[in-house]
Amino acid sequence: MSEKNITTDIITLTRHVLDEQRKHKEASGDLTILLNAVQLGCKFVATNVRKARLLNLVGLAGGAVNVSGDEQKKLDVISNEIFINALRSSGRVAVMVSEEDEDAIIVEEETRGKYCVVFDPLDGSSNIDAGVNVGTIFGIYKIKDESNGTISDVLRPGREMVVAGYCMYGSSANMIISVGNGVNGYTLDNAIGEFILTHPNIQIPQRGKIYSVNEGNAKYWDEACTEYFNSLKFTEGKNPYSARYIGSMVADVHRTLLYGGIFAYPADKKSKNGKLRMLYECFPMAFLTEQAGGKATTGKERVLDITPQKIHDRCPIFLGSKEDIEDIEEIYKRHN
Predict the structure, then answer these.
(1) Name one GO molecular function term (predicted).
(2) What is the pTM of this model?
(3) Cα(236)–Cα(239) distance, rounded to whole angstroms?
């Protein structure tokens, strides 16, 4: 490569966040420091994911089971510890909620900050032995004005999040993030150890051609859900949608954001409240989808308007292209 083809003025995630911070004179810089801690956690996990087989980090962690009843992988446990330590040491966090921990983590008063972070440290880890993309999902709330940091600060609708994002670990590490003014994507450059802006201002297409759902559960679906997915496959005069289901939410949502269509994990007779966790799976992904111009619904209401009662509550979700989601909303209205 000739020297004149080398780009020297690169936009990193840290630079981008600092640029945004400068636009707000009242900003304290706390959120920037917190996002640097999130970045550190993602870089550390990305390194471990790449080395998992060599370091013997795949397989089960001594038969351990997390709060959702899923068997914990060794890498799940390590990833959880990485994020807890990175977030706590930032000095900007008051409360943490992780999929891997039954109770919320209230940070010690002397190092407590004014933000709450909810996260799934390694989504899709059951697929890691097969080399499938996995990832970290996270959302950030600011504690209420009168609060010192309690569980009530996270039991709030997803629309009140100030940041949502995920980092996908595959052939590259991709960070997709929104601070409430659109969605940007960054790719980790391992040579310099920085996330570089590679997907500015992601906009999901208004309608897609792909649907992503676990059709192994089709016999448990309600009538509205069955009618909708049949319409994607069998409607006369319409090209059928392509089916793409990876089984790793981060990977399926990432494709949906870039190419459009719909990702779904509906409620059914087997999982009456859906399977995915509200706080650290559905809310961040719904936030990102809406910020990219799409929609996210349970079929009956906007996902980001739900108020969780417990930190590990679940909800059904359909997210993706605006017109595709409006189609399923119409079907649910008719059936109701």
Answers:
(1) metal ion binding
(2) 0.92
(3) 8
Is 70 tagged catalytic? yes
Tens digit of each residue's pLDDT (9 = 90 or more) over 75-87? 888 999 999 999 9
Q: Evaluate whether 123 touches 281 at the Cβ level (below 8 Å).
A: yes
Which one from 153, 194, 268, 281 is the annotated catalytic residue? 281
List, for residues 41-50, the tens digit of each pLDDT value.
999 999 988 8
Set out the domains of the chain in order of their start, with CATH numbers.
Answer: 13-201 (3.30.540.10), 210-335 (3.40.190.80)
Active-site annotation holds for 30: no
CA-nearest of 36, 27, 101 to 64 is 101
Residues 87, 121: contact at Cβ < 8 Å? no
Q: Which residue in the list 40, 57, 76, 288 is annotated as catalytic?
A: 76
Catalytic pick among 57, 122, 232, 257: 122
What 8-state DSSP symbol labels residue 44? H
